[in-house]
């Protein structure tokens, strides 16, 4: 369900939005970040990571599926699954290092059928609007619609997470 649509006109605007959404995140949360190349996924994650207390550079993972940054209260995980295509042929332990208690995870390019990501709390979808403008959709409870092998709590009525 899309809850909010924002347009930003520069990278700083997208970072600020990332910071804003980070303020509502809790230990263990997963945020899915979708959108074409260059739409600002990493920029948004950078803003969020900064707000969570990450001080070093926040860049796209290149040689691994993700980075983990120590922040004050949690570890901020930043995954980019672009090159992976899907996780079905991967060792489940691959994701385990990045998700779960003590972590807040941002996942770029999640494919729709990752069961490991089915309990994500937020989905962000970015798209190009010409020049430096980006359209950013923020939605909650991303993967409960359609057939994900889960039943029940599509209205957020207290289902197990
Ligand atoms: P992605 O991770 O989606 O591939 P990046 O965040 O790495 O995208 O790159 C986005 C690029 O677009 C950066 O070079 C950034 O400076 C530029 N940019 C221009 N305008 C914006 C904007 N409004 N929001 C985010 N990035 C922007
Ligand atoms: Mg990126």
Characterization of this structure:
- There is one protein chain.
- This protein is α/β, with parallel strands linked by helices and 161 residues long.
- It has one domain (2-88, 98-140): 3-Layer(aba) Sandwich (Rossmann fold).
- Helices cover 17% and strands 27% of the residues.
- It has three helices and seven strands, in the order βαβαββαβββ.
- It has helices at 11-22, 41-51, 93-96; strands at 2-8, 30-35, 66-70, 75-80, 103-108, 122-128, 134-140.
- It has a seven-stranded mixed beta sheet.
- Helix 1 (11-22) packs across helix 2 (41-51).
- Residues 144-161 have low confidence and may be disordered.
- The structure holds adenosine-5'-diphosphate and magnesium ion.
- Magnesium ion binds at residues 41-42, 60, 80, 108.
Would you identify the CATH H-level superfamily? P-loop containing nucleotide triphosphate hydrolases
What is the spatial order of strands in the main beta sheet? 1-7-6-2-5-4-3
Tell me, what is the CATH class? Alpha Beta
Sheet/helix structural class: alpha/beta
- Beta percentage is 25-35%
* First-residue to last-residue Cα separation: 17 Å
Order of helices and strands: EHEHEEHEEE
- The radius of gyration computed from the alpha-carbon positions, rounded to a whole number of angstroms, is 15 Å
* Overall CATH architecture: 3-Layer(aba) Sandwich
Total count of helical runs of at least 4 residues? 3
Rounded mean pLDDT score: 85
Q: What is the structure about, briefly put?
A:
This protein is α/β, with parallel strands linked by helices and 161 residues long.
